[in-house]
Write a structure and sequence with these properties.
The protein is an all-alpha fold. The protein has one domain. Helix content is 81%, strand content 0%. It contains eight helices and no strands. It has helices at residues 6-18, 22-43, 48-68, 76-87, 89-92, 94-111, 116-140, 142-147. Helix 3 packs antiparallel against helix 6. The longest helix is centred in the C-terminal third of the chain and has 25 residues, at 116-140. Keywords: Membrane, Transmembrane, Transmembrane helix. The chain crosses the membrane at residues 21-42, 48-69, 90-111, 117-139.
Length: 149
């Protein structure tokens, strides 16, 4: 009976994300979105929804990976949550991916005017991409969890 419930996993992922570098993630996402929009204006193909979704993607990746990059920093609960996240990269990656898909949905729905299902599909595809990248990067960082145990 040592298995975690979905609620326990969500609590651990949330505790690991609590120590994410939110300012750095916001600056990165904002800078990338702004740069994308400005480059689009220069080339004549500016797309606000694309720029915002790229910014959300980088925001989520920096926050997710930054949260677990230093497993020995923070209080005991945060350290344990980060170690759990490093040992279970595919489960941890669900939460940054879901958060980014939730953020992308209104952007796709309102700015792209794709409709309810088209916006949901695009947001889900963006979330799937973030899930895969976050999980693979977390998987490559697994040795940090093994060293610190």
């Amino acid at each position: 009976m040592n298995e975690l419930t979905r609620r326990d996993e969500m609590s651990l992922a949330g505790a690991a994300l609590r120590g994410a570098p939110w300012k750095a993630a916001a600056v990165t996402g904002g800078a990338v979105a702004t740069t994308s929009l400005l480059l689009g204006l220069v080339t004549g193909s500016a797309d606000l929804s694309w720029a915002l979704c790229v910014g959300i993607t980088l925001f989520s990746l920096v926050a997710g990976i930054g949260a677990i990059s230093k497993p020995d920093v923070g209080d005991r609960v945060t350290q344990q949550a980060r170690r759990w996240s490093l040992r279970h990269p595919w489960r941890f990656a669900l939460y940054p991916a879901a958060g980014s898909a939730i953020l992308m949905y209104p952007v796709q729905l309102i700015l792209d005017r794709e409709g309810v299902f088209g916006a949901a599909w695009d947001a889900a595809c963006g979330g799937a991409m973030i899930y895969l990248i976050t999980a693979l990067l977390t998987l490559s960082m697994r040795s940090r969890a093994k060293k610190s145990n």
